[in-house]
Amino acid sequence: MVDKSFQLNEWKLDLDIESLMDYTGCKDLGLIVKGIYISEVALAVHLSWERGVSETNRTKECLGRLLRFLSSYAEELELVVPVLCLIHVPEGVDAEIKNKLNQWAADQDWHRGDFSIVVLSEDKDKNKDVEDIIRKILGTASTAWPQIELKPRDIKAIINSFQSEMRSRRISEEHASLLAAIAQTLDEGTDKPIQNWLNGRMEDIYKLMEGRKGSER
Description:
Structural class: alpha/beta
Largest sheet: 4 strands, mixed
Order of helices and strands: HEEHEHHEHHHHHH
Number of strands: 4
Shape: elongated
Helix content: 40-55%
Radius of gyration: 30 Å
């Protein structure tokens, strides 16, 4: 489970945000920087969209410039890591803005894989803790991987899985009958169904051979 005691401050960059936004031309364009974090795994930028702002074209250009600037600066420090931007959309923001932001996230011609964008909308993600998301992004896999209790599968579970796989595949009638015999063998704990299937196939072969002999006479 995620270690709640871990403080994000250990990853948070101490930057002059106002100067950064001014330098990249992003000041007063509707994006509020909540935090910029970096680890050996990733660089995460947490932003919030300001209510009442409807301009999007200039803001899109600014966002790309900001994220690429941070990525380049990280590379200068020999930290070549993926860049992920979390944009929190507060309640009350126009639905058209949310749609625009989601379009940005999907616009590969724009970001070209230089960074990724995740839009966090309160109406969909109100139960999600942004700090937990950032921890999972920046931490190693072990910080996000839940504890899994591995239980041995009983024979019924194996048979159900076997039959489900059998139904999902396009197989011949003969193949299906063999798989059914195997499932029955697993269920009954005896090889009799397999033996019956083999005997049936042998009978089919004998009949086929007899038919060929008859046609040759």
